[in-house]
């Protein structure tokens, strides 16, 4: 007997575009960019094909872990305006397909890195994937307002992995690159969280502004921004780069502090449009792009003999 089955997500056609969206391509541009810079700025040489393979593996691993994040958070995403139209809450894809795609991308990325580049870089990539998809997404994010501080470490791995793919060992410079992104993440995210906090409150995610209030969040943004500045400049004063990177890092970091000041001193009631927070969030992205680009420019200048 023919039945009229209700239209479920299982019967809806899935578009390739949605698989791509699951990898959070916009956020990943900066993740992948920092990985590319890690490869290019590392001392030593790598065959271009291998360099490309390392970057491809990091991109696949980052994308794969983002897919697993979206798979796990489908119900949470359905409750927030910013995320409700993602492929899973939007009902355009089956949950199992997202899960399998995430596992596939992650597994291939680690295997590719191990076979083509080396198992230290592959182990770091595996650690980063577990960090983002399991430690941050499944464990910390729904439990603690410090989720961003601890979990944000996942996003700090890509330049470290890129560097290690070239050199094969972990030295002070790649650790500093890790630390830069680690200390950058709280101001990056909390500035955003200040103007989308009602959304997080609705779905019960304990983001700092929701749990501890705006005043604490604003102070934490300021503290992390002040800690970030010397760490961002450190590659220069430990002698890992020249004044080219050093001066860019100083200018960018001073501007970061300047833009964090009004976020620190104001309260929401005073600024309806939340302009200083939006500005700081946008600037955080420019900051990291330009800082890592300066690292590569510095290395190119050294290779060309333009600087001593
Ligand atoms: C736990 C850490 C982080 C959290 C919670 C976080 C959260 C967010 C959120 C919610 C957005 C808003 C837009 C969107 O949903 O696409 C965003 C945007 C963005 N994030 Fe992050 N982020 C984190 C770490 C990072 C890292 C490590 C990077 C790169 C190194 C990064 C790069 C970006 C970029 C480039 C955008 C702008 C995307 C666009 O133009 O739409 N984020 N972030
Ligand atoms: C190599 C490798 C595995 C790199 C991982 C890269 C990484 C951890 C990036 C984190 C950036 C990111 C997408 C945060 C979104 O937070 P969220 O997921 O809480 O944001 P949402 O609310 O938009 O889902």
UniProtKB/TrEMBL annotation:
Enzyme class label: transferase
The protein, known as: Protoheme IX farnesyltransferase
Q: What is its EC number?
A: 2.5.1.141
Spell out the CDD domains in the cross-references: PT_UbiA_Cox10
Q: Where do transmembrane segments lie in this chain?
A: 27-46, 52-72, 101-134, 160-184, 221-238, 244-264, 285-306
Q: Does the keyword Transmembrane helix apply?
A: yes
Q: What does this protein do?
A: Converts heme B (protoheme IX) to heme O by substitution of the vinyl group on carbon 2 of heme B porphyrin ring with a hydroxyethyl farnesyl side group.
Reaction equation(s) it catalyzes: heme b + (2E,6E)-farnesyl diphosphate + H2O = Fe(II)-heme o + diphosphate
Chief subcellular location equals membrane
Q: Belongs to which family?
A: Belongs to the UbiA prenyltransferase family. Protoheme IX farnesyltransferase subfamily.
- Keyword tags: Cell membrane, Heme biosynthesis, Membrane, Transferase, Transmembrane, Transmembrane helix
GO cellular component terms, semicolon-separated: plasma membrane
| Pathway entry | Porphyrin-containing compound metabolism; heme O biosynthesis; heme O from protoheme: step 1/1
Query: In Gene Ontology terms, what is a biological process of this protein?
Result: heme O biosynthetic process
Subcellular location(s) per record? Cell membrane
- Beyond the main fields, what else does the record say? Carbon 2 of the heme B porphyrin ring is defined according to the Fischer nomenclature.
